[in-house]
Amino acid sequence: MRLPARRLLPATALTAASALLTGCFTGTEQTTDASGPGGKRIRVAMLQPPRSGLSPLSDDAFKLSRWSTAETLVELDEEGDARPALATEWRRSGRSWTFTLRDGVTFHDGTKLTPETVVESLTRAAGASPKPRILDGVDLTAKADGDRVTVTTATEDPLVPQRLSSPQLAILAAKAYRGKTVDPVGAGTGPFELTKVDGTSSATLDRYDGYWGGKAKSPGIDVTFVPDGTARAAALRSGEADIVEAIPVSQAAVLDQDLVTEVPMPRTNTLYLNTEKGAFKNPALRAAAREAVDAEAIVKGVYEGRADVAEGLLGPALPWAAGLRTPVEHTEAGDPAGRTVTIGTYTDRSEMPEVAAALQQQLQQAGFRVKLDVREYANIESDALAGRFDAFVLSRATVLDSGDPAAYLYSDFASDGTFNLSHLTDAGIDEALKKAAGTPAGDARRRAVVEAEAAVLAQDAAVPMLHERVIQGDAAAVVGAAHDPRERELVTADTYVK
């Protein structure tokens, strides 16, 4: 891939970044511990602060996974197939799956992994409100079966093992569930123990020497939450951080390219159109918006070529999708005739406001009048879910939870999906989604997934614009940092700083 020319940060940007770094990284000086290969703690700069007190029943679960502190019964390999984790094997009988637990696993509080603790974790997740996305449309129960755990669903579900790999179904010690909220501090099973959380500013993890998989190579992890992308990039440049996630494309070119890793990922930047009310209740105006979007211009102008123009909701991280697609028939576009629409998006990913501004210009050229509402994600998500915008721009992971896109499609486009930003209600789409969800893994399931994707695209409920790439920064002294397209791993037991 041809990299864009190097550019220097303006002096004002450098000054702002320095000020942010001074505040964000105070007290995160590198410390050493001779007991590890590198002997140094790993300093990590993360994009988004916790939204729900690091509850595993929220998207915060992926932080716990990326820090290797909370684990699941099952993991996914690079192909998205299930492999053993806290469970060593499983077998299916109709609607039930029986999992054999790994021997010798202890939680960070010293208690043992038992069928009862597994059942409690899964039961709390299944009964949560809202449910974890991975359980959208799934009625799941768990019970202890001797020294095993049996998971049963209301209907036959060929993806139960993949679902149980979701970080939102992490298994925690009983102490985590004693209050009204789930507290993961000192309750995981991973190589690092979460010992302290300082609100939305930082988190501390120490090596857990009783880890069933062997001693971690680093003595611990010091996490700082830095929503500002310029400050995160500057943290890598200045040596304030060892690993930096989600480097903005605007900053990637000014970094030492030897420190930057770029990987196509199953994340699509999508314009969700509100089909329930407002201008985009009209299918013809949704079609007009779709036709107005120039995704290639956004890729070149905002992402500096570090993204892929979308051909559908599923991108190059799922290469099988492109070969199965057929042309989609759309509604004929109507005339916007000065209709006013409001587009919402968030500041947590620095590209999003720029994407919204580009869309504003493109839609205005087509005849719409466009207002923007841009806030931090924590302050805008509830309004988006409540349908208070005509459109919403979101960077959405398409296989984040199960490694299979059917769950994402259901969550975002089913009538009862819990993340239905388009407020779409369509019996034909619901049927296509249910067919995809119930088809056994393999080629038939993939065809059903692509058919469901086509049904959504035909309604112009969402306009996929581009597929993002992971841009991660690792200091030269970092060894073994994970570069995970699904954003489940970052620091593992094998990661350390020389």
From TrEMBL:
Signal sequence extent: 1-16
Keyword annotations from UniProtKB, A to Z: Signal
CDD domains for this protein: PBP2_NikA_DppA_OppA_like_3
GO BP annotations listed: peptide transport
Domain Solute-binding protein family: 83-418
UniProt keyword Signal present: yes
GO CC aspect terms: ATP-binding cassette (ABC) transporter complex; periplasmic space
PANTHER family: MONOACYL PHOSPHATIDYLINOSITOL TETRAMANNOSIDE-BINDING PROTEIN LPQW-RELATED, PERIPLASMIC BINDING COMPONENT OF ABC TRANSPORTER
Superkingdom as given in the UniProt entry: Bacteria
MF (Gene Ontology): peptide transmembrane transporter activity
Protein name: Extracellular solute-binding protein family 5
Pfam families according to UniProt: SBP_bac_5
